[in-house]
Write a structure and sequence with these properties.
25 strands, Beta-Lactamase, alpha+beta
Length: 735
């Protein structure tokens, strides 16, 4: 019906045109039969032509319909979203892909602004994006503008956040300008970019917190990157100070060629290792070791040298100290032996061979008991075994035998060496030939047995150990008068802390009719303990039967306490990691330990006799100096942090403690100073303060941004109100 109606309409329109354009039929001249046939023939031909043209038009219309269907299929089911927008931002049309992306039916999208789906944080960017497009069209005066691109976030109907790329261009259509927009979902790519960014931040955090230097250098040695540990190592205040500078100028000249060779090898694809010395920007020399490897790009080309460098100055100093110790052990006059935990000899020095006659080759592999002989005191052997079992130091005198069979008295010290797990790994033995001294002591002891008025306490006991005589010195030392002790066994001097091993050794000597010589903790009449350097000598009658024992006692308490204190103090002061210096009352340095040199660079010889304020420099806090002077003046302890200067001129933060030492009269005799380098801690504290400042600044910026978001939400509500739509944010609380 539609086709018929259209044909009738066309017929009526054609007749109307003919009536207007041509004369009426009545005015036409009469036609002959021949003319009529010719006209009819022409009309028929024309009719056929029209029918053929009509068929062609129908075919073209069908092809156009098919093309339009294909276009709609391609448009609707394209992998990207397509839409057209009016200048006011409303969607004119949209394909099914965009509808599916936003989770909104296509019909519901038409007439809605795209900004409805754009995240608030990206609204400003989209506004400027639109403005840029329209400004460009006005300037170019073209009917079709160049495309513009932006990446932003959309929120779907199910509240999913979608990263998209918008490609938009302005086009003139049906008398109106509109935006044609292609929307591509790039969420997966953005997720990868975020992951890559997170990975890069994690990697950079690891590198920046790595305690060793991490650096990148070019083929010509220029520094491309360096972490914070590296900047500290080369004494640079910032990377900008050394960026693009050649690393070769930091390397000592004696190692520079080897470093260049290593760099060349790396850029040929090899990896390498090198130990060398560097000099920092502030003059500090350090030993370092570096592991260098090639860094390649995606194409496999070597773009840089990746170097991991570690400060090994302390290790080098320790190695040097070990070499010096080895030389010292080899050259000292005392014989030194080292055994494993199983007491098998592994090393001896030349002095040991000189004392015993046994070379290192003859000694290594033997148990150190091979020096013992027939007259070696079993009690001393037992004491050694007890000390080894208890993992304690042994110090005593023992009769040993040389390779040629001759006996010698050995003043021996055996010290256990513990590993990091406090397990004995070795024993160190120090041997000193005291045969001559022992002979002299024996001679003196025989003479002293007959003397009663010498300064040493002397008592004489019968063969059954009952005291029969004592001298005045014994009373002075012990507080016991002759009436107190005559007839008593001399063990009454023993007390709760008397060493059972020493008591056992005395008993063993008495039972074996041998002399005892050793130190034992005894007790006076008033109950106070004292160290007794005790000698008990058996006296034989003509039948070689013991008739008496002569005991000589000497109070060595002060010496023992002093020796113990000195040993502990010496070991402690030499071994602690803090620098220690001692001054006299005039504050002139009289002693420093090794850690002091490591901290300040000044050796003991360079420091001796100087006033300790020579560490101070131009930036030393005057208030700290005044506080130190006040404490010294008041004979009080000082503890505080002060900026001091090393020998090489570099500044360091010093956690300093100064303690006065008083003599018996209460006057200051010395000052003890303990210094600790806390520069790294102070730098770390400064870095933390900087980060806190940055965090505060970031928080303030975020507060300002929240105000902007609230303002944009109000604008959205106003825009919806003008369109007679309900507000998106219904209450001030929602804003």
């Amino acid at each position: 019906m539609e086709t018929k109606y259209s044909s009738e309409m066309m017929r009526a329109q054609a007749e109307a045109v003919v009536q207007k354009k041509f004369t009426t039929l009545e005015t036409l001249p009469a036609l002959t039969a021949e003319d009529t046939r010719a006209i009819v023939h022409e009309l028929r031909v024309h009719q056929v032509q029209l029918e053929l043209q009509n068929d062609e038009l129908r075919s073209a219309q069908l092809a156009l319909e098919e093309s339009r269907t294909r276009y709609l299929d391609l448009y609707d089911f394209a992998p990207v979203g397509y839409c057209s927008m009016a200048k006011n931002g409303e969607l004119i049309e949209a394909n099914l892909t965009l509808s599916a992306l936003l989770g909104v039916p296509r019909a519901a999208l038409i007439g809605k602004p795209l900004t409805r789906f754009i995240l608030c944080e990206d609204q400003d960017s989209f506004y400027l994006f639109q403005k840029q497009i329209f400004s460009a069209q006005l300037q170019n005066h073209k009917t079709t503008a160049l495309p513009h691109i932006i990446e932003l976030r959309l929120r779907s109907s199910d509240s999913r956040v979608i990263w998209v790329k918008l490609v938009a261009a302005e086009a003139f259509n049906l008398g109106h300008w509109q935006l044609r927009v292609v929307i591509t979902d790039i969420s997966a790519r953005k997720q990868v970019e975020i992951q890559l960014g997170n990975s890069e931040r994690r990697l950079r955090t690891i590198i920046e917190t790595e305690p060793d230097c991490v650096k990148l250098t070019s083929a010509d040695g220029c520094l491309l990157e360096m972490n914070a540990a590296g900047l500290r190592l080369v004494e640079a205040d910032s990377f900008q100070q050394i960026k693009n500078d050649s690393v070769y100028f930091l390397v000592d000249e004696t190692h520079r060629d080897a470093f260049r060779t290593l760099s060349a090898r790396v850029f040929k694809g090899e990896s390498g290792f090198l130990e060398f010395q560097i000099t920092g920007l502030k003059g500090t020399r350090r030993w370092v070791e570096t592991h260098a490897s090639p860094l390649r790009d995606d194409a496999g080309r070597i773009t840089a040298l990746l170097g991991i460098t570690r400060d090994i100055t302390a290790r080098k100093l320790a190695e040097s100290s070990l070499r010096l110790s080895d030389v010292a052990l080899k050259n000292i006059s005392q014989g030194v032996i080292i055994t494993g935990a199983d007491q098998i000899l592994v090393w001896t020095n030349a002095a040991f061979a000189s004392i015993t006659g046994y070379s290192a080759a003859e000694s290594v592999g033997q148990n150190c008991r091979f020096l013992q002989g027939l007259e070696t005191d079993p009690s001393t052997i037992a004491a050694i075994q007890l000390a080894l079992k208890a993992r304690t130091e042994f110090n005593g005198e023992i009769l040993n035998y040389r390779k040629d069979g001759t006996a010698f008295w050995n003043d021996m010290t055996i010290t256990p060496v513990f590993d990091s797990n406090h397990v004995v790994s070795h024993y160190v033995g120090v041997n000193r030939d005291i045969t001559a001294r022992k002979a002299t002591e024996d001679s003196l002891r025989l003479s002293a047995a007959a003397l009663k008025n010498i300064s040493q306490g002397v008592l004489i006991a019968s063969a059954d150990y009952c005291i029969v005589s004592l001298n005045l010195a014994f009373t002075t030392i012990t507080g016991y008068s002759p009436d107190d002790v005559i007839g008593r066994n001399c063990k009454f001097l023993q007390g709760p802390e008397t060493d059972p091993l020493t008591v056992a050794a005395i008993r063993f000597a008495l039972e074996n009719r041998s002399k005892f010589d050793g130190e034992i903790l005894n007790y006076r009449k008033d109950g106070t303990a004292f160290w007794n350097d005790l000698t008990i000598t058996p006296v034989f009658d003509s039948n070689h039967v013991v008739s008496h024992y002569v005991g000589v006692t000497r109070d060595v308490t002060e010496r023992k306490l002093a020796e113990s204190s000195m040993r502990l103090s010496d070991v402690a002061l030499k071994s602690i990691s803090q620098g220690v210096f001692i001054t006299n009352a005039d504050q002139r340095i009289v002693w420093t330990n090794a850690a002091f040199k490591a901290t300040t660079g000044y050796s003991a010889e360079e420091s001796m006799g100087r006033n300790c304020k020579f560490f101070q420099g131009p930036e030393t806090d005057s208030q700290s100096v005044i506080a130190i002077q006040k404490a010294v003046k008041n004979h009080a302890e000082f503890n505080g942090e002060i900026l001091n200067y090393r020998k090489d001129g570099t500044a360091f933060w010093d956690d300093l403690t100064i303690t006065p030492v008083f003599d018996v009269q209460g006057a200051v005799s010395h000052y003890i100073g303990i210094t600790r380098d806390i520069t790294e801690r102070r730098l770390a504290e400064a870095a933390i303060q900087k980060q806190l400042h940055e965090l505060q600044r970031w928080q303030e910026a975020m507060l300002g941004r929240e105000d902007r978001i609230m303002e944009l939400k109000r604008e959205v509500n106003e825009l919806l109100a003008r369109q007679n739509q309900p507000p998106r944010y219904a209450s001030p609380d929602a804003l």
